[in-house]
TrEMBL record, chain A:
The lineage of its organism: Bacteria, Bacillati, Actinomycetota, Actinomycetes, Micromonosporales. It comes from the Bacteria. Keywords: Signal. This is Secreted protein. Residues 1-27 form the signal peptide. It comes from Paractinoplanes ovalisporus.
Automatic annotation (TrEMBL), chain B:
Residues 1-26 form the signal peptide. This is Uncharacterized protein. Keywords: Signal. The lineage of its organism: Bacteria, Bacillati, Actinomycetota, Actinomycetes, Micromonosporales. It comes from Paractinoplanes ovalisporus.
Amino acid sequence: MRRILAFSGLLAALVTGSLLIAPAANAATGPSSTRIDSVDRRQQGDRVLVNLSYNCPAGARIQLVVTVTAANGDRIAQGTRQKRADCTGDWAATELRVDRDLAGALFIVGQATARTVRTVCDDTSCETIPFDEAIRIS
Amino acid sequence: MRRRIALASVLSAFAFASIGAAPAYAAADATIDVMWAFRVARGAAVDVSYGITCPAGYQATVTVSLDQVRKDGLRASGTVTEQLTCAGTGVLEMGRVTASVTGAPFQAGKATLAILATGCDDQDCFAVPVNQDIHVQN
């Protein structure tokens, strides 16, 4: 009889315990942000020079992937460039040379859109955040 | 003694019932309401706004695709994928769909919109497809 009671108690404890265990939460790396300060046309539209500022927690590392997309008549100009940097905890500036995808058109001066995907990693985890912003190619 | 046996039987039954109930994956409820679509950067992209309701705590992946045959017969298309954590209540989201580099810029007018939202927690998943025409506004 005692065995039956003990077995029942064990099962009840197991069930209750399994219900109380919460799934592990992803550790946050801390606040981070980016902004594109300027975009300049270079090499007759084969390239744009992106000046970008970023801010991320000291000791972390950041990977930036910037894609610039613009219309040129009835075609699309697009290019992507990525860069890695160490975080200082303060705003820092960097420069990315974005070459156009040869399947598309040349970059021209005017309105465009940029997508910056930042991946910030500390020793325990990474966090990936995309950000779209309207830009002007000068 | 009989009371003890009865109690042990009830506890065992509860325990097995609880264990048995966990894998009975009921489909989670989620909905998407398409709001509007605005052309940006001379048609280099379109901002698609939609409302999404999905169970709190679920990690959702939303893919937004836009396809358009322009008045001049050229095709514009693009896809964007976003990650979000469900709030349990309706939230307004916006996906910036950039035009494919091999296609043309988007124009104002009719386009075909496809949204697929999928998400899971530890036990259950949902999938919500939306396919409809939409008017891209300037």
